[in-house]
Amino acid sequence: MTEDNVGAILKKLDDVYGVTKEGFYHDQPWQLLAAIMLSAQSTDKQVEEVLPDFCRRFQTAAQLADAPLEEIEASIRSIGLYKNKAKNLKKCCTQIVNEYGGEVPSEIEELLKLAGVGRKTATLFLADAYEIPGVTVDTHVFRISRRLGWAEGKNPVIVEQELQKVLPEEHWNRINFQLIYHGREVCTARKAKCEECILGDWCERRI
DNA sequence: ATCCCGAGGG
DNA sequence: CCCTCTGGAT
């Protein structure tokens, strides 16, 4: 377990990938939650393409909850897993209207009760919407933090707890997008490009 | 061809 | 625990 590499790596990530990420377009918090749900297994570009029209068509959670499933599907048709997402969005918005008075809850335990909202979506929403510090562990964060020697846990929940101990809290809300960029371009699941990695000096995997 | 910026369901 | 859902990137 190396923890002395943490400071140097975090600084490098800040330098190369920046400290802020532009969030998804939205007028209302529930639309941000919807955008994050849409982003699963899809690119930001795909999501941003449908988002303006989506937000215009469904201005409130109640409007989406009442819309025919076919209309919801049509509005997100170009995005991966669109049938699942349309079904989950309708159910999720129905829950928001019926059980939360039309407002997205800000407690993670409540968010996790919403259809289509898992831990990754919930923590990212809390960070983006309310700047609540949290470590969002998606597939990239999971893979890279293990390669760096920051975590050893066998599932995302354990890794999340390990990272909360290893990382200063002010980095929690930016480590996700930084490692996503890094994970897509360099530290890929297979055939990682260790020769061109900016973290090569400190990474346990390369040394 | 193969793998995903997940989550629900059997 | 493993399967499925989807288009797009590589």
Automatic annotation (TrEMBL):
SUPFAM superfamilies reported for this sequence: DNA-glycosylase
Cofactor: [4Fe-4S] cluster
Alphabetized InterPro entries for the sequence: DNA_glycosylase, Endonuclease3_FeS-loop_motif, HhH-GPD_domain, HhH_base_excis_C, HhH_motif, Nth
Amino-acid positions noted as binding [4Fe-4S] cluster in the UniProt annotation, renumbered to this chain: 187, 194, 197, 203
Gene Ontology molecular function: endonuclease activity
Cofactor info, note text: Binds 1 [4Fe-4S] cluster.
Top class in the EC scheme: lyase
Enzyme Commission numbers on file: 4.2.99.18
CDD domains per UniProt: ENDO3c (cd00056)
Domain HhH-GPD stretches: 38-185
Record key words, sorted: 4Fe-4S, DNA damage, DNA repair, DNA-binding, Endonuclease, Glycosidase, Hydrolase, Iron, Iron-sulfur, Lyase, Metal-binding, Nuclease
Family, per entry: Belongs to the Nth/MutY family.
PANTHER family: A/G-SPECIFIC ADENINE GLYCOSYLASE/ENDONUCLEASE III, ENDONUCLEASE III
Function according to Swiss-Prot or TrEMBL: DNA repair enzyme that has both DNA N-glycosylase activity and AP-lyase activity. The DNA N-glycosylase activity releases various damaged pyrimidines from DNA by cleaving the N-glycosidic bond, leaving an AP (apurinic/apyrimidinic) site. The AP-lyase activity cleaves the phosphodiester bond 3' to the AP site by a beta-elimination, leaving a 3'-terminal unsaturated sugar and a product with a terminal 5'-phosphate.
Protein name: Endonuclease III
Originating species: Lacrimispora defluvii
